[in-house]
Amino acid sequence: MRAVQVSTLDGPRSVAVAEVDDPQAGPGQVLIEVHEAGVAYPDVLLTRGEYQLRPEPPFSPGSEVAGVVRSAPEDSGLSAGDRVAAFPGFGGFAELVAVDSRAVFPLPDRLSFTAAAGLPMNYLTVHFALTRRGGLRAGETVLVHGAAGGVGTAAVQLARALGAHVIAVVSTDAKAEAARAAGAHETVLADGFRARVAESTGGRGVDIVVDPVGGDRFTDSLRSLAPEGRLLVVGFTGGEIPTVKVNRLLLNNISVVGVGWGAFWLARPDYLRAQWQELLPLLESGEIVPPAGPRHSLDEAADALALLDERRATGKVTLRLR
Fold first, then answer.
1. CB neighbour burial string for 172-183, b if at least 16 within 10 angstroms, e if fewer
2. Which one-letter DSSP state was computed for residue 124?
3. Residue 286 CB neighbours (<10 A)
4. What does the angle CA 85 – CA 40 – CA 311 come to, to the nearest 5 degrees?
5. pTM for this prediction
6. How far is C-alpha 176 from the chain's CA centre?
7. Distance (Å, rounded) from C-alpha 320 to C-alpha 121?
8. What does the pLDDT look like over 230-282, one tens digit per residue?
9. How far apart are CA 249 and CA 245, in angstroms?
10. Integer Cα distance of 105 and 243 in angstroms
11. Pairing mode, if any, of strands 83-86 and 104-106?
């Protein structure tokens, strides 16, 4: 089969397509014919050996896919021909991938493979962030950084679907349009966002900040929290890992909350299916659908990864394989 290969840890531009052996499904695994693969920021990190998982080259990145089941264990609830999304972790930038059945999810008929390929990483991460770690309640206000990217649009959509008022933080007017299309009630530019948020909330602040960016916005995000507000640390696409002076947490009883979705479910693999069941009604109703972003062929994987690496992506970037 054809697959994107990381042979050296020299970054996104070093990946190339190669002919490799077809994977064989092991015990408890589903073999999936990949139609579309989602491109996520951890895939970029994998090309440099900077992710917490560090497979030895050569390997194929690709943490989320959508396609058709070729074979499945009898007790998996899946059958050959089923349309599914899946979270292989890596190995998804390939025509076939074998995935633990607990990380394979049935798709509603209304969802295209392109949309479905944008679900597993971002939407399950954001669901974990907002519901389990953030304790989001209907009627609260949520501020989302990087709101035009994959994690950001997922956070915007899910927070709104769960009854929150959503303020999106973006870097350009074009990205503001993308955030509004995803469902943001308001958009603000990153430069000077704290003052705009204070004005919008009448000085109260927001209940939750979803932050996949990090960097120099962090302190102003803390200052934008209402009493008992929660800042959810999702990632650091801005490059810099910020620090916090804990005395800031005392004044308004605010919290900085780590969101380690992968670390959580790896010890509890059945949690993934439970999350999917909670999201399924929203997927079936169309309340959440990943905003389409640039689609690339498998041969253009380096370009697709570079879009995320250079923070030029709007919507979900995917690779089409069939």
1. eeebbebbbebb
2. H
3. 10
4. 145
5. 0.91
6. 19
7. 17
8. 999 998 777 678 888 888 898 899 999 999 999 999 999 999 999 999 999 99
9. 8
10. 37
11. antiparallel
